[in-house]
Amino acid sequence: MIELYDTAQLPTLASPELFRLALDRSLDAATILQSLRDPSGVIVDFTWVYVNEAAAAVLQQPVTALVGHNLLDVLPGNRASGLFARYVQVVETGLAQDGEITYAADGISGWFRNMVVRLGDGVAIFFRDITAEKRTAEALQVSEERRRLAVASAGLGDWYYSVTTQIPELSVQCKRHLGLPPDAVPSLPAIITCLHAEDRVKAGLQLEQALQRGGEFAVTPRVLWPDGSLRWVAVRGQVLPDRPGELVGITLDMTEQVWAERSQHLLAEAGRVLAESHNAAAALERVVRLAIPDLADYGVLYLADSEGGAQRTVLAHRDLLGEALLRELEQRYPFDPAGPSPAAQVLRGEVPVVRAELTDAQLATFARDAGQRTLLTTLGTRGFLVVPLDSAGQRIGALLLATTSSARQYGLREEGLGRALAARIALAIANARLFEAEQAARAAAERAARQRDELLAYIAHDLKNPLTAILGSAQNLQRRLGNPTAVVDIERLRRGLETVETAATSLAAQLNSLQDIAQLQAGRPLELQRRPVDLVDLVRRATAVRQAATDRHQIRVEAEVAQLICEGDPFRIERVLTNLLSNAVKYSPAGGTITLRVARELDDEASWAVVQVADEGVGIAPEDLPHIFERFYRGGNVSRIGGTGLGLASVAAIVEQHGGRVAVTSEPGIGTTVVVRLPAPASPGSEPV
After folding, report:
1. pLDDT tens, 411-449?
2. Were both Cys, which of 177, 188, 553, 689 would link to 251 (CB 3.0–4.6 Å)?
3. How far is residue 576's CA from residue 593's CA, in Å, rounded to a whole number?
């Protein structure tokens, strides 16, 4: 080793030999340079006075090629790189310099850690090649950047937590998932408060268990963002195997996926309930409740009726108190389909859909009075969505979904799900109504078939009597006329022919009645043979015939006029009277008095001939009264009494074709009164009796 230039200037050690020995054995490169000055004292170069083996290896020169030689002669790149100026500055100022440099000249290329201190009129330089370290660091940085890019492109956030520091380290994306600003430095409790209140305990327990037992940590809580929206965030973590108490993990916004899964499940479950249930009302309520609480805190289903009105059909709330408030609102303030409420507007087709966020002041505008305002405020609605129920181009109802929490907002996504749910409900309602219509049609067809059979049996029975009379009389006459020895009794012959004539007339009347019934049932009007008819005379004749056929009833006629003329078909009017008298007798099986009153009435419209037929029979139940003029309809309390259900239908049709009116009043167990009014212009003969 070449001797040092001036060992007296070395730092104070036990001896210069020990210092040199330390430099020789150092793993770091070390050189000592002596300043070379011009006559004016300016440093123009440096001369090597010491170089250890590590420095020679880095400089790619043998020690002998360096010691005693000038720096810029051997390594001219020192001037261009700025190292020469750096060394001069240390000599002149006495201030040491330490840092990382790059060198790419004189066949040397790389990164170096370089420390320079003044040593007498020169410098001691300690340096180390850190190129491999720098390249490793750069590779790690590139790898980390690639990892961050991959995490970011996948929408992932990353985090780190240590029980020692208790300060979570969150990436910007992770903070975004939690609804935090990029510069936020939240504590663990602050992060927990970002979660939905119902999910905080579960997330905290999962984290505590992971730290205690090691292994994985996985939860998907709901996160409340500052704007009030609700998000689902998957949080996955792993305790570091070699460092218990430390976790690393990722976050991922799962809102769209969770929403899609829950929406699909909701619609599928709604379809299943509606398809499988045999109780339409119960199915509708179950479907509305399916939307709670994921889509709403409460829901109301409105259905339109056939008369242009509507009513709240289903009211469902997530808790019992809220449901009680809804029912109190319905009881005290029934839904007004003509009112200004959003549901009424959607039902009337004025708006396609309504989405709204509400304040207490806005909510109060929907109230009719202070009582309703109090109920609405207590209910606490913060937002609502109203979607229509349409079927075959008709608006059949509306579905209201509402929230009582600011954590839920109704946007286009919620509207789409609400519309899809409403479409399924509308389809189910339409199918139920179609099923009911089919059932009603089937029942009507079965009833018609049964009534037809009953009618045929009844007609066959009624026609059998006159036919039997005709056949019996004819056979009796034939036997008498066929006996040449028999004496012809003219009087008996006359009575026999009268019996045939009477029976044939009755048969013809019944056939004419059947023909009229068939014509009316086909929707064709009767061909009336109009002429002046004395209604008093018709009543008396019909009464006499019917009185002769019964001995359990007393039939009375009370006429206010001696004669009452009206324009009409005498045969059809007589049939009306006969049917009414027959019904009065038939439905008074215990007998009693039947009273026919004939009178003229005047009102603002016209002059009327009025016939009132009153009996003391079984009467008609109130629920049957609206239907008694329908063809084949028979009251529930007369099923044991024979009949076709055509008599009153025929009466109503004949009276209406004459321009008249018919009405019935009745009380079960007391009797029935039928009033027929026919147009009757005043005439000279219509005088009081």
Report:
1. 888 888 889 999 998 888 888 888 878 888 888 778 767
2. 177
3. 19
pLDDT digits (tens, 9 = 90+) for 211-252: 888 888 899 999 988 877 788 999 999 988 888 888 988 999
DSSP 195: B
C-alpha triplet 110, 111, 115: angle, nearest 5°: 130
**C-alpha–C-alpha distance, residues 166 and 77, integer Å:** 51
Going from the C-alpha of 528 to that of each of 509, 513, 567, the distances in angstroms are: 15, 13, 10
What confidence tens digit (pLDDT) does each residue in 168-202 have? 999 899 999 999 999 999 999 999 999 988 899 99
Collapsed DSSP state (helix, strand, coil) of residue 614: strand
In this prediction, residue 460 carries a pLDDT of 63
Nearest to 114 by CA among 4, 24, 27, 29: 29
Burial class (CB within 10 angstroms; exposed 0-12, middle 13-18, buried 19+) of 337? middle
Q: What is the DSSP string of 279-315?
A: -HHHHHHHHHHHTTTTT-SEEEEEEE-TTS-EEEEEE
Mean pLDDT (the chain) is: 82
Main-chain dihedrals φ then ψ at residue 577, nearest 5 degrees? -65, -40
143 against 534, higher pLDDT: 534
CB 422 within 8 A of CB 347: no
Contact 66, 59 (CB under 8 A): yes
Beta-strand pair 29-37/122-129: antiparallel
Residues 525, 526, 530: CA angle, nearest 5 degrees: 125
Q: How far apart (Å, rounded) are the C-alpha atoms in residues 511 and 521?
A: 15
**CA nearest to 158, candidates 181, 175, 139:** 175
**Secondary structure element (H or E) that encloses residue 501, with its range:** helix 490-521
3-state secondary structure of 237: strand
| CA 630/CA 646 separation, integer angstroms | 8
Which amino acid is it at 295? L
Q: Are the C-beta atoms of residues 347 and 304 closer than 8 Å to each other?
A: yes
